């Protein structure tokens, strides 16, 4: 039995979650810190891990799954840094070095959604699949991808939430909320987009509200494009908006309607219920994502 | 020096090109056959390779880079087959077994665009890059992808030409020509779409015709989405429409306009001229793609 302990950091725009987890996925210690200035936030996290190590013994590695954009490519000049984020004070923050220096253990670093897709492939709804997509649809929209068994990084990492969607202004005159692209996926379908369009928060809208059909349309458009561009074996949807379980059948039906018989693949057409699925790690995909990165690094 | 000989088949909807190529990329024999019925076409190709082998000596492997959809996954039940193509008589054609049986050599099989992106990564405009996209924009539109040094197959293979694009009917009332999706990338921007929209073939339209600005807009939309979803290090454009070299600066300018300052990556923003580039294997990417597949199989 692997007795190793791993550190996991889920870095979000509003809070950082730290945990010590063992190889059986048991969370032995956990703490949440508001995302303040980088120096305060990092100090809080470091203090947590140093205390945990003193009590539990040494950690084998630390994984950080963070909001982006960031540089996840080991060996790159900017590896470990948050890049040009609009979040005040956080651009160019080195999130890896403070932990690597103070804890003297391997530190892995990737986007929250790349962590999540890795965790889903190990323990969640995409177990054993070599081509997998994870989208979080909530305050923001982001996607992580595994292709041929490897996380996609490329030039940096995917930014799937900002892909442009077909937007019919007659059907939906709402212009979108993305400050960069207005009516990209995030601009049209994130939680803030729903709230700005309908004047109420997503969770306040009843299941029969017209909002959900439109929301399913945009999500399905994004998923059809994702399926055509990356040919994943499964698409996993998490995040606050997808907590509305009634969205899943709407998204699946619209996906098939848009695909319109193109691609005669049973795994996609006949088995649509297992092609577009909820997260298997409800609410904990981010933290387990950081754990998965730590295990890879150890 | 590698003295091996390879067979290469570029299977297209109108013609099949067969060649024997050595490891120095010299084409020793070449023949073109119209794409007739599967049995006639395969017999013509087989006869070519058998004659070539009698004259030149044994081939080490054969690579087939073909129109799709097809099953490129060795070990899969349908490996080697053309799948549900609208091309009469070709659905469910096994393109691999006749060659493997008659020639008794390893036969590799993939899409024309996956072959092309592999060839570009070995000898063309994407030499040495681990994350690369190749689009052909011509009679049809298709894309091939290398992510983290591997061709993406996934559930089947990417079908990038059918991704939906944002379509502003006020700016462009043309409904699109795709029989499945109407206004997907292929439906809006392929050669037949240009001809149907403007009443003239693409190569007959002067460089200052409004057609090109609109064409560049759609191509740039598709490339922005591709860059956001796959984070390639470079995007290579080939095919008949892209033979209009004046399209490249228009596409690059529109790409930057649409991205609107999101992603502060010098390799994409400052170096846009080397980010979106023409094929380095002008006209021969398909055949060299089949060669690249053969070399992988040998």
How many strands, what sense, and barrel or not for the largest sheet of chain A? Answer: 5 strands, mixed
CATH topology of the largest domain in chain A: Nucleotidyltransferase, domain 5
Q: How large a portion of the residues of chain A is in β-strands, by DSSP E?
A: 15-25%
| Overall strand count of chain A | 10
Count, helices of chain A: 10
* Neighbour order of strands in the largest sheet of chain A: 3-2-1-4-5
Q: What would CATH call the class of the largest domain in chain A?
A: Alpha Beta
Low-confidence stretches of chain A: none
Total individual domains of chain A: 2
From the N-terminal CA to the C-terminal CA of chain A, the straight-line distance is: 16 Å
Oligomer: homodimer
Q: Can you characterise this structure?
A:
The structure is a homodimer of 298-residue chains. Chain A has helices at residues 38-56, 97-103, 112-123, 185-189, 191-198, 210-230, 247-259, 266-269, 272-275, 285-297; strands at 5-11, 15-22, 27-34, 61-66, 107-111, 132-137, 141-147, 150-151, 234-238, 276-278. With 298 residues, chain A is of the alpha/beta class. The first copy, chain A, has two domains: 5-112 and 284-297, Nucleotidyltransferase, domain 5; 125-278, Nucleotidyltransferase, domain 5, CATH 3.30.420.40. In chain A, strands 3-2-1-4-5 form a five-stranded mixed β-sheet, with helices on both faces. In chain A, strands 8-7-6-9-10 form a five-stranded mixed β-sheet, sandwiched between helices. The longest helix of chain A has 21 residues, at 210-230. At the A-B interface, strand 7, strand 8 and helix 6 of A face strand 7, strand 8 and helix 6 of B.
């Amino acid at each position: 039995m692997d007795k190793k302990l791993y550190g996991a950091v889920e870095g979000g725009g509003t809070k950082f979650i730290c945990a010590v987890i063992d190889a059986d996925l048991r969370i032995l210690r956990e703490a949440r810190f508001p995302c303040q200035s980088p120096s305060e936030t990092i100090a809080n996290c470091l203090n947590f891990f140093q205390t945990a190590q003193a009590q539990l013994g040494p950690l084998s590695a630390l994984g950080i799954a963070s909001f982006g954009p960031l540089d996840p490519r080991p060996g790159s000049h900017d590896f470990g840094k948050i890049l040009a984020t609009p979040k005040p004070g956080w651009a160019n923050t080195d999130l890896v070095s403070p932990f690597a220096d103070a804890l003297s253990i391997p530190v892995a670093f990737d986007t929250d959604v790349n962590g999540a897709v890795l965790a889903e492939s190990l323990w969640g709804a995409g177990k054993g699949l070599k081509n997998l997509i994870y989208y979080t649809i909530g305050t923001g929209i982001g996607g992580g991808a595994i292709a041929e068994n490897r996380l996609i990084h490329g030039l940096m990492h995917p930014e799937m939430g900002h892909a442009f969607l077909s937007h019919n202004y007659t059907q939906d005159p709402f212009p979108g909320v993305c400050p960069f692209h207005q009516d990209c996926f995030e601009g049209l379908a994130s939680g803030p987009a729903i709230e700005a369009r309908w004047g109420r928060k997503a969770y306040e809208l009843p299941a029969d509200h017209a909002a959900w059909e439109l929301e399913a349309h945009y999500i399905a458009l994004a998923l059809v494009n994702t399926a055509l561009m990356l040919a994943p074996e499964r698409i996993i949807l998490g995040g606050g908006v997808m907590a509305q379980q009634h969205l899943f059948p709407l998204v699946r039906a619209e996906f098939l309607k848009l695909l319109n018989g193109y691609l005669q693949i049973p795994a996609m057409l006949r088995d649509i219920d297992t092609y577009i699925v909820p997260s298997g790690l409800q609410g904990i995909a981010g933290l387990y994502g950081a754990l998965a990165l730590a295990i890879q690094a150890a």
